[in-house]
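Entry for the shared binder. Reason: the reviewer on the internal report wants the predicted structure included alongside the sequence.
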Amino acid sequence: MPTIITKIGQYQGASTKQMPAAHLTRTMQLLEKTCNELDTELANEISENPALEMAEECRCPDCKQIIPSYPCQVCLNRLNGSGPIVYVAPRSTKTYSNEEYDEYYSTDNKLKDPETLSEHILKQVAPSVSSNERKIAEHVLARLNEHGFLIDHPAEIASYLRVSLDKTKNVIEIIKRVDPIGVASQDVMECLLIQLDMLEQDGKTHPLAHNLLTKYWEQLGKRDFKTIARKCNVSVQTVRSAAQFIKRNLSPYPAQSHWNNAANATGRYFRPDVEVMKNPHKQDGPLVVQVFSAAQGWLRVSSSVRTMVNKIEDPEKKDEWSAYLERAALFVKCMRQRDNAMKRIVKLIVKRQPQFILGTDKDLIPMTRAELAIELELHESTISRAVANKTIALPNGRIIPLSTFFDRSLAIRAAVQTIIDDETTAMTDEQVAHRLVDHGYKVARRTVAKYRSMLGILPANLRARQIPRAV
């Protein structure tokens, strides 16, 4: 199949054949669509065009041969080099998928909205409260701020709902002790103490943790471990271990804890456009990459319709059915070129970024769409269309936008996160900028502030008042 540049047109003065306007436009339209959008597009096209059909057969997009499963072993044997194994196949294929992804990629699986915090809590609270108490719970959950803290005093709620204060407090106490623990607390300290109490009930605690939260909160916020150690008559290391226990086991903002978990959970219901897997047959083998196709079989122009058109004598009807055939042929060709373009682009991205795919954000190698365009002999706008709104599932189960591979700030943000995680005292944005030089990045203070905000990290003056990060 010709590559998309030989059809799409010129790139940097290359002598190429122009694609007809209708062909170019249709191909670009399909390239911009995600797999989910293509599902709808394909279904509509088949329903509207009798000359277009889907054959229930497994056929290789490259060699066109019928194969027992994806990827095509004949085409795999022809591959040269150590690059990734990239193939186009329907989402339902399981040849290279792990069992844990079977439900994940089920054709019956739909994108599900994440469960809200209120829904999550009400499910847990419902068995323990009456119908009247449920109304109190619903009102309490509606009065939480973005951190999960209750912005109203229990007496205000009781007065507003015209119920007893004791009943209101009882419902709030139930809410505080369901997942995520600490929701509906008045402030950070109360939230942490409730979590600590629940841990102690499970036999998991630190003898100094309660005192740090109640008696030495101010010194804890300043990371003044020496003063705490002197007053408690313990070693500085003991104080550090208590602070580390708090950091690892307690969450100051319960709502944030819920949304982090919800983001991970909804990943299994999200349908990515590309999946990267470790080679199941060879530990150090090339990565296996599946570019998902909307077609669940072999899309083709109906041969029976073609035969029928040749027998039609009425010129008007012949023209009508010939138009169906032309439209079907155009759609099939554009769909295959769309899939082929995605395959080529994804293959080069994975070939360039194996460390990031198997590692962390700091392993991302700076890369631009223009660089890929030059190497693939495509126009930069083609790369942009192919990447926009698409997602890719990594071997660790994380699903990220395909555009992440072109995010030049990602590695810098990872370095900012590392620097702040390792700080012994709250560092200003200016100080973080100086530290970034050691990581090979020279950025302005304002840039650090922007990246810190993107990461959800508080400024230095507020971090100093929060739970210390033990060193």
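Summary line for the report: The longest helix spans residues 315-352.
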